[in-house]
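Problem 12. The chain below contains 225 residues. Write out its predicted structure in token notation.
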Amino acid sequence: MKSLVTLLSVVLFVGQAWALDFDANVPKDIQKQMLEDLDFVYAIQGSGQTPFHKEIFKDVSGAEYKLFLESHVKSVGISACGGGNAVACVMPLFGAKMWLTKNFIEFSHPQIARMMVVYHEARHTERAKANWPHDNCPTPFLDENGNNMTSIWTGASLAGEAACDSTQYGSYGSSTIMLKNISKFCANCTDKVKMDADLYAANQLGRISKPDVKKAMLADFNAKK
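Solution.
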């Protein structure tokens, strides 16, 4: 009986994931990959969370991440998103929909990094917050070692681009907080997943253009609620 209940739970769980609607032009392998990625995120079990994470996502928990995403994104399409180096985008007129670009499809990144993009775009669907617009990155835009800041996804230069946030609550800030909390508190993630989450979180923290906000985020990462 227990095995039957478990099987039914899995079937229902997968059925809920398939409720995400894909446009016909989204490649089948990308659809499958995204649903498998979501299954991974929805299964996360956490042992704590930082205060900023509590504000945005509540617990480090697959159930909470599922509620968040399903309340933000209903469908996925393919678009050039204005061209250039975009990986994905949201077009406010279309509401709860995100678009992937060829950069999402053609570049290879870890599973947790792909989910970083999805939750980043989910934040952009929040019309009540004007879709959390980005700030222009500084020019020049240098890291702590004096090197030019580039996209971890495409390698493109970020100086002067609308690719930074001035708040921890925007798309870069919130996805950074999510990844950092997964790296610290995920109880059922592999060491590789936690290492990848920490790596991409550290990189995305560099997109926070205000030093005081970045300082507050670093302090948050060392707190537990």
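Discussion. Confidence is low (pLDDT under 50) at residues 1-18. Students who got a different answer should revisit the alignment rule from Section 12.3.
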